[in-house]
Amino acid sequence: MSMKTPYSNIRKLIEIQKNISYKALGSLRPPGYAPRLVVGLDAAYSRIYGGVAVAVIIDYVSGSLLDYSVAIGEPRLEYIPGLLAFREAPLFYTALQGLRHEYDLLVIDGHGISHPRKAGIATHIGLALGKPSIGVAKKKLYGNEVYIKKLGECNVHPCTIGYVADPETGEKLAYMVLPNKRSRAPIYISPGANIDLETALKTVTSMLKGTRLPLPTYHADKISKHIARLLDRGVLKPNQLKGGLGRLDHFMPRI
DNA sequence: GCGACAG
DNA sequence: ATCTTGTCGC
């Protein structure tokens, strides 16, 4: 079980996010190059060992899964809406270090700037690593949903059905996309850092292969859940994992 | 006080 | 996220 965090510390984490978003918002421009290798990040949870973070590498052109890395460990923080990055990013960072390839882009399960302080987990990670990052979330966290299309008008998928607007300024923070024929609910695509909203949309929709999630996140999701199951069944031991045990000393500020 | 609330 | 049985649809 993760530690409970006092309200005083929560305020400090919120201040850190304001600092992060200040820098990240100035980085939201087109990368200027097409991605070659793309990382997908997702986490599942094992009852025994805690978080199971998986980083995968996908070849953007072929869609091939080239590599993956795992990090496990008990998160230091409980889940608090808006503060997900402080819970999961340390594990993601560890998983990333086990990767054998360099990469151009990160696709992360969760939000980017479509966040109360414009500092979702994709923003934290993209800014810290100095790479383009995109958040792909399955549920809205913040903002007003604006529909630019009726659901019935979406014949060809993926279909951009609307966007999420900043309640203060009306600025577009994320696009809502129906990834395939089956899904009733959209996915939310927002830039994390070092990329703009339009490029984020194009890039992610081009990696939708009939699945609800884009290929990188799709694979990371499947692998992390699978490993969490094996761990809880005792079929797999933490020391057998590629990427090893998670060191949680990164991304967590001293509070 | 009430509703919202990534994973 | 995870816990869980049945159930709707291709």
TrEMBL record:
Molecular function as annotated in GO: deoxyribonuclease V activity; magnesium ion binding; RNA endonuclease activity producing 5'-phosphomonoesters, hydrolytic mechanism; single-stranded RNA binding
GO cellular component: cytoplasm
GO process annotations (BP): DNA repair
Top-level EC class as recorded in UniProt: hydrolase
Superkingdom, natural source: Archaea
Binding site for Mg(2+): 42, 109
Stored CDD domains: Endonuclease_V
Record keyword Electron transport present: no
Pfam families: Endonuclease_5
Localization: Cytoplasm
Enzyme Commission number: 3.1.21.7
Substrates-to-products reaction catalysed: Endonucleolytic cleavage at apurinic or apyrimidinic sites to products with a 5'-phosphate
Site (Interaction with target DNA): 79
Keyword annotations from UniProtKB, A to Z: Cytoplasm, DNA damage, DNA repair, Endonuclease, Hydrolase, Magnesium, Metal-binding, Nuclease
Main localisation: cytoplasm
Needed co-factor(s): Mg(2+)
Protein function: DNA repair enzyme involved in the repair of deaminated bases. Selectively cleaves double-stranded DNA at the second phosphodiester bond 3' to a deoxyinosine leaving behind the intact lesion on the nicked DNA.
Family per record: Belongs to the endonuclease V family.
Cross-referenced HAMAP family: Endonuclease_5
PANTHER family found in the cross-reference section: ENDONUCLEASE V (PTHR28511:SF1)
Protein name (database record): Endonuclease V
Protein encoded by which gene: nfi
